Amino acid sequence: MMQTEILQKPLKGCPNFPREIKLNNHNDSSLMIDDTDTGNDTDRRINPTTNGPVSKDVITDEMVRNKAFRWCQDSIGGAWLHLTSEKDLQIEPVGGGMSNYLYLITLPKGKHSSRGEPEQVLLRIYGQISKSTLDFLVHNSVVFALLAERKLGPKPYGMYHDGRIEEFIKAKPLKPEDLCKPEVMVMVAEKLAQFHSLDMPLCKKPRWFKSLVRGWIRDIQNNLDSNSVTMSRLQEKCPLFNMDTEFNELLKMANDLNCPIVFCHNDLQGGNILLADKATPQTPRMTIIDWEYGHYNYRGFDLGNHFNEWMFDYTMTDKPGFSFVCSNFPSKEKQFQFFKTYLKASGKEEITPTDLVNIYIETNTLALHSHFTWGVWAMVQAQTSSIDFDYSIPGPPIDYSEYALTRFDSYFKLKKCLPQIIAEANS
After folding, report:
1. 266 bridge partner residues
2. pTM (2 d.p.)
3. Which residues lie closer than 8 Å to 36 by C-beta, 6 or more apart?
4. Measured between alpha carbons, how far is 228 from 112 in angstroms, rounded to an integer?
5. Contacting residues for 228 by C-beta, under 8 A, at least 6 apart
6. pLDDT tens digits, residue range 201-259?
7. Where would I find the H helices in 197-331?
8. What's the rounded Cα separation, in Å, for the pair 173 and 66?
């Protein structure tokens, strides 16, 4: 999910609800969504599995060094070409990668740039979940390259089918306590407005949520043994829980809201927001990174997902590898402050109370979709993500099963409270 600072270890239903948005009505045939509009953006799986366990990530020290050596020599050249052995490289794992494996690669001492090439780069090796579909790989590369060309993201040095070499930005990632600071809120809101206005050469329909999440659900259903404990605990929390039914409900809710479709980051949490002490000609004050999930989507998803991430801290060194504080979710007042900046930066000259209520309902409704997405994602990660470093330093990686349960618990609670949230917004 993100690039953060270098760490000392590798990462391892309710009657009052508006009639047009239906929840907890599991027998309603209107929840069956027309799924024919998939075009060329279907979930085209690479080496699809119909039954049995899916492939797990296998990342070793030898593999990392080999890729770093080959890719840096092939793609950067200069001083990197004068290295005689992969053992010369300085390699440090970069904490925070939850979908991919990240490493800071540095030239050995005494070696310096010969023609302006970087002396440090970031090596990104895609995890299984990032390379499971053809569309994901293509979109990831296209988005990354275009944002870099527009100077809105890190520079690419080498792009490969299973990873890439990219610019390493020397700035600090934000922590949950930073996200609520007025200055940071303004910058994030303005950045989101900027990205949401981009015209990208991708499908302009909101197929990202539908196709990607559906593919993850299929992975879970094809590997029920790997998820039996998590599914059992979910059934305890919600006896009527059915992943397909919930997903169809969410699709209908998003469709009924008729919210704007924009180019979204879809994973805007603190670790993906880098803040420098000051802007330079080469680097802006704030940089948004890790666009693996960047695609056209419901605007409310991006906004709601960002607010959801105020509650999560992924820098914890104790089990389960993250912390969750429900009270950190921004209040209505804070959200309105954010929306005013966002709408103004989006070019809206006069912002009315109705504008704020509408985007508030949109955001808090699609926050539900965010929790569901990352709950499903975490269940797939639990069965595919692994850490196998020869230089492993003690410390637990994120417990994906526990993270999935936390996300779904938040999903159930928000689903129960959403009618009241909407009613109070309209009052």
Report:
1. none
2. 0.84
3. none
4. 53
5. none
6. 999 999 889 998 999 999 899 888 888 888 999 988 888 899 999 999 999 999 999 89
7. 207-221, 228-237, 243-257, 299-309
8. 28
